[in-house]
From TrEMBL:
<feature type="domain" description="UEV">
    <location>
        <begin position="1"/>
        <end position="131"/>
    </location>
</feature>
<protein>
    <submittedName>
        <fullName>Ubiquitin-conjugating enzyme E2 variant 3</fullName>
    </submittedName>
</protein>
<dbReference type="Pfam" id="PF02866">
    <property type="entry name" value="Ldh_1_C"/>
</dbReference>
<dbReference type="Pfam" id="PF00056">
    <property type="entry name" value="Ldh_1_N"/>
</dbReference>
<dbReference type="Pfam" id="PF05743">
    <property type="entry name" value="UEV"/>
</dbReference>
<dbReference type="InterPro" id="IPR008883">
    <property type="entry name" value="UEV_N"/>
</dbReference>
<dbReference type="GO" id="GO:0006089">
    <property type="term" value="P:lactate metabolic process"/>
</dbReference>
<dbReference type="InterPro" id="IPR001236">
    <property type="entry name" value="Lactate/malate_DH_N"/>
</dbReference>
<dbReference type="InterPro" id="IPR016135">
    <property type="entry name" value="UBQ-conjugating_enzyme/RWD"/>
</dbReference>
<dbReference type="InterPro" id="IPR022383">
    <property type="entry name" value="Lactate/malate_DH_C"/>
</dbReference>
<dbReference type="GO" id="GO:0015031">
    <property type="term" value="P:protein transport"/>
</dbReference>
<dbReference type="GO" id="GO:0004459">
    <property type="term" value="F:L-lactate dehydrogenase (NAD+) activity"/>
</dbReference>
<dbReference type="InterPro" id="IPR015955">
    <property type="entry name" value="Lactate_DH/Glyco_Ohase_4_C"/>
</dbReference>
<dbReference type="InterPro" id="IPR036291">
    <property type="entry name" value="NAD(P)-bd_dom_sf"/>
</dbReference>
<comment type="function">
    <text>Interconverts simultaneously and stereospecifically pyruvate and lactate with concomitant interconversion of NADH and NAD(+).</text>
</comment>
<dbReference type="InterPro" id="IPR001557">
    <property type="entry name" value="L-lactate/malate_DH"/>
</dbReference>
Amino acid sequence: QYKFRDLTIEELKNVSKTYPNFTFSMNTYTFKDGSQKDLLNFSGTVPVKYGNCYNIPIHLWILDSHPFAPPICFLKPTANMGISVGKHVDAHGRIYLPYLQNWSHPKSTVIGLIKEMIAKFEEEPPLYSLSSSDAARQAELLSYIAKITEGESDKKSRGKTEGENEECFNKITVVGAGDLGIACVLAVAAKGVASKVVLLDLSEGAAKGGTMDLEIFALPNVEISRDFSASADSKVVVLTANFLGNAQTYLDVIQSNVDLFRGIIPAISHYSQNAVLLVASHPVEVMTYVSWKLSAFPKSRVIGVGANLDTERFQYILTHLLKAEVLAKDACIIGEQGEDKVPSWTSCNVVANQTEAIAARNSREKVANRAMEVLKGKGQRSWSVGLSVADLTDSILKDKRKVHSISTLAKGCCSINSEVFLSLPCVLGTNGVMEVVKLEEDPLVQEKLQSSAGSIHDLQQQLRL
């Protein structure tokens, strides 16, 4: 059934010579769409040096169009091994490498693939040792991910264990221990809204410096962990993880973030099935969409930080710098982050006639333009985004039902027909978005939102989910 049987056999002979420990067999592989096919596969270990030399078990499936299509690669951890989710490995153990993405016969070979695998694993070890209790949790997680991969997720399967504390416990998990993640932890802790804050550190190397300082100067109710199970039963999960590699194009960077989230979101959604996912990773509109798709959560419980910070600044500028407090009341920044954001209002004052209405609109537009010029000079530092995240979590955990401009599914708003996330004024409560507040009708605003939706949708169509 292999189209290029001789080429495939020749290459596998070369693999066997270089890695004699590999074993070959024919087995049935189940694809994501549920279809199945008998494929050649081989299993074995590759030597990885990380201090000492470790043998990393892998499992490779050879497609019937090989060598013109790359193998499908997985880690094959033993019962006492845990998977370190990262930019090259997802929570199910599937391996993603630039070599696979750029596969091209005859330049690309299985031997070359394994060499890159070894190099990447030496930079970021894909496995770690588990205690017996950790091994049980790992097996449970892998079983759950296998179910959702096959479309058999049962959200009710993980009920309360006997004796589990039923009282309200406001736990927040922050995923990613870079500057933004640490800023979010500090801001949330300072706000005092969470009973416990978990910082989930998925990184190695430089980023560890910040978490080391958090460990040294221990904060009350703050825990640092590399184990997804530490996030269990979080009310809010803040996603700050971003790809830090040397991707060549903007699309490559986003795809790398998507690959990273493919390993994070299933594990997070397993351990905190009723959480609100709050996305702060870049680009926020696309990564919020990705989180929604990968989690299978309702749209109300997957939101992005969006233009919350810009809106708070915009209202402050109107009130305190331009002395236009009346205008600030219903003002917000909407659309997509960056230069394409646009000011808008959720309501307008009733005026006596059309002439006065036009005059009021023109006056408001002039003030808004001045405010936007001031806003342009305000960059978004990690600590300022952290404060915005703390503000949003405060509204969620305390069920404040306050209006925030956040990234939410915009389909159906302003004649947008595609599944894209844009910043819109939303009422936030315990279960996320309770209501999208109606905007004042403005053709120019609608045109800008539709333009943003079109460009974001085009970008999403180029991504591999």
